[in-house]
Each structure stands twice: as C-alpha cells, then as structure tokens.
Amino acid sequence: SAAEKGGYDYFMLKEIAEQPQAIADTLLGRLSERGDIVLDEVRLTDQDLRDVDKVFIVACGTSYHAGMVAKYAIEHWVRIPCEVELASEFRYRDPILDRSTLMIVISQSGETMDTLMALRHAKEQKARVLAICNTNGSTIPRESDAVLYTHGGPEIAVASTKAFVTQLVACYLIGLHLAQIRGVMYADEVAAVVSRLRRTPDNLRELLTRMEDVRELARDLKTASTILFIGRHVGFPVALEGALKLKELAYMHAEGFAAGELKHGPIALIDEGTPVVCVVPSPAGRGVLRDKVVSNIQEVRARGARTIVIAEEGDDEVAAYADHLILVPRTPTLLAPLMTAVPLQILACEIAAARGHDVDQPRNLAKSVTVE
Ligand code: AGP
Fold first, then answer.
1. 263-319 pLDDT tens trace
2. What pLDDT does 214 receive?
3. Under a CB-based contact definition with an 8 Å cutoff, are residues 165 and 19 in contact?
4. R_g (Cα) of the chain, nearest Å
5. For ligand 1, atom 16, which residue shows the shortest CA distance?
6. What are the SIS domain coordinates in residue numbering (predicted)?
7. What is the pLDDT of residue 279?
8. Within a 10 A sphere around the Cβ of 343, how many other Cβ atoms?
9. Which of 206, 265, 270, 340 has the maximum number of C-beta atoms within 10 A of its C-beta?
C-alpha cells in the first residue's frame, strides 16, 4: 500500500531515501568516542584475525560489487592479499584455502544458495568465515564463524540499494579493524577515515536533495538501445553496479567496463549518441586515476558518445567533457562508492518507471535466490 511505501511510488525509492539512515545505523555502536573501530560482536579473536594471511570475499550480484570495492580497501589498508569472487564460480575452481584464510561472505538475505554453498566449501577447507548480512538469524550467518550485521532494515524492492551501501560500510569497518589490530595503520590514520565515514550520512542526505536532473535525464534516456558505464579503481564496481541495476529494472542492454579496458575492444560499441556513464575518481589524492578517466571520457566523446559524468564537487575542469554532469560530495577515494552509486540507482529506477515497468518486482527475478 501507499502507506507502507511511506508516500513514495515504489519501495525502491523509499529504500534509496533511507540510505543515509541505514549507513548511520550500521556505524552505530561500532565506533568508539576516540574514533577507532569496536567490533565486539564479531566472534573472532584478535589473535585469529592477526593470523590471517589471505582474504577471500565471495558473494553474488550487488553484494559481489560491494566485495569488489572491499578488495581495494582491504589491500590498501591491511596490506594482505584479498581476492573477490562470484559465489557461483568459487568452489568449482578448487580454491586454495586453509585455517589462516579469512573468507568474507556478503549477503543481504543470508539465504542465497550459491553463497551458502561457497561458505560450506570454505569451512570444509578449515577457513574462518565472517558473514556480512542484513537478515538476523538467516542461514548464512548461522553457519558462519562470525557475523557483522548491516543495519539496513528490511529491503523489500528486488533491486538492492540500502543493503549495498551498508555492505560497503561493513567492509570498511572490517578493513579498518584488521588494519588496526594488525598494527598496519596508526590510530590517528584510522580515526581520520572514521571521521569521514561519520560524515557520509549527511553527505548523502544532501546529495539526495538534488537528484531532479537525474530524473529528467532518465526520461530522456528511456528509449536508448544501450547504456554503457565506465570507471576505474572503486569506480569500476560502481560502473558494474549501475549497469546491473539498469538491466534488472529497465530490461535494457547495459554494460559496465573498467575504463582502461575500452581501447581493448568495447570502444567499438560507441556510436553517435551512445550514452556512456562515466564515474570519475576524486582529483584529490590519487589525481592520476582521475586524469586517466578524463582521457577515457575524451576518447569516447571523440567517437560520438553522449557522456553522463559523475564527478566530485570542486572538480571544475570535468564539466568541459560532460553532456550531463552529476556532482557528488567530496569523500576520500575509497569511500566514494557510497556517493557515486546512488545517482545510478535513481537513474535505473526512473528509466524503468518511465518505461512502465514494475520497479519493485522486475520480471524473472526473485528477492532471494535460494537455488543454485
Ligand atoms: C541486486 O539488485 C540483486 N537483486 C541481486 O544481484 C542480489 O544482490 C544477489 O542476488 C545477492 O543477494 P544477497 O545479497 O541476498 O545474497
């Protein structure tokens, strides 16, 4: 009913709007006054976590995209090798695991069969399994050695939105916690990231107040025959996520690429007017990355692409290459997906609605996939 949807046309729109609160709730109680990470509810001892020499992250769909972002954060902060893999592929390739492997499984529902089977496989190999899950008491956390719950609240729409951003937060917390107890990051470095994380709910609230342009753009793009998404570094999983949302909701052809891979093939797809959504990294810090994406934008534009550019506030130069510019609040590079993914959720939702689809219940899909 309309009341259940809190006045929104779709649960998905309601859940998109709930994201700032979902992030705040997931941070709640996990940060100390001093600004370090407290994960008391994770039933793995500090010694267990110090013994870890390799991390595997395994998940499906949107949760897998959160895992891809986590890989960048964990390797950068913790300095241990981290692999991320689709649950449906994981156990069939005979992965190498042992008791010093930390396996992180990410699942909103906690019931995804592919993820559960990967978890069981990892346990048979004696790996320690930590679940990131949004559903209390579901099968995946029950079978794991430890769990960090995301506090997104119930997600009704088939398309995952608030679960995704809270999964990112959980991954950041785990990465910082590992870095802290292993002594790889100084307390003040952890505190600096934590203080930026604490600001993300407000940053996102502000971003959500100015999405009118994205809605307008959606009406314009509803007849496109394809939409391509490009990004680098953590912007790459965001590009994949933007494309997945569009496929599942709007039933349109969409594809996400690592921007640097374009010249190895996909750039041949670009034709006059092809919409390309470009996720631009922050110009601060690793400016190199940002400059590389800007040159990729110029390349697609030179071939006729219509560019929809998602960039950070203050990145003034990028406007010159954008047919449509969407500015997001400034964040440290690794946290940027908490901002950049959100306009893409809205874009997909609005394109789907403009095409007359049932946004909350897309065809052929189930909220939780309990078959392999
Ligand atoms: C995302 O919008 C999807 N509907 C889907 O990819 C989902 O993320 C995937 O099935 C994994 O589900 P889980 O997080 O409940 O395990």
1. 999 999 999 999 999 999 988 865 788 999 999 999 999 999 999 999 999 998 899
2. 96
3. yes
4. 20
5. 107
6. 45-184, 217-362
7. 97
8. 24
9. 340
- Contacts of 295 by beta carbon, 8 Å cutoff, 6+ apart: none
In which residue ranges of the chain is pLDDT below 70? 1, 285-286
Distance of alpha carbon 94 from alpha carbon 115, whole angstroms: 15
Nearest Cα neighbor of 240 from 22, 20, 66, 12 is 66
Identify the residue whose tokens are 């954008």.
322
The residue to mutate among 112, 168, 246, having the most atoms of ligand 1 within 8 angstroms of its beta carbon, is: 112
Determine the pLDDT at residue 286. Answer: 58
Read out DSSP for 57-110? Answer: EEE-HHHHHHHHHHHHHHHHHH-S-EEEEEHHHHGGG-----TTEEEEEEESSS
CA distance 95 to 210: 45
Please report, for the chain, how many H helices and E strands are present, in that order. 13, 10
- Which residues, in sequence order, are bridge partners of residue 328? 312
Q: Measured from the CB, is residue 135 less than 6 Å from ligand 1?
A: no
Whether residue 54 lies in the annotated active site: no
ipTM above 0.95, yes or no: yes
What single DSSP character describes residue 361?
A: S
Q: Is residue 361 within 6 Å of ligand 1 at its C-beta?
A: no
- Ligand 1 atom closest to residue 59's alpha carbon, by position in its atom list: 16
Dump pLDDT digits (tens) for 267-281: 999 999 999 999 999
In the numeric block, the tokens 């534009």 are attached to 301
60 lines ligand 1 (CB under 6 A): yes
Q: Which residues contact 327 (CB under 8 A, 6 or more apart)?
A: 311, 312, 313, 315
Tokens of 147: 């769990």
Q: What is the pLDDT of residue 43?
A: 86
Mapped onto helix, strand or coil, the DSSP state of residue 130 is strand
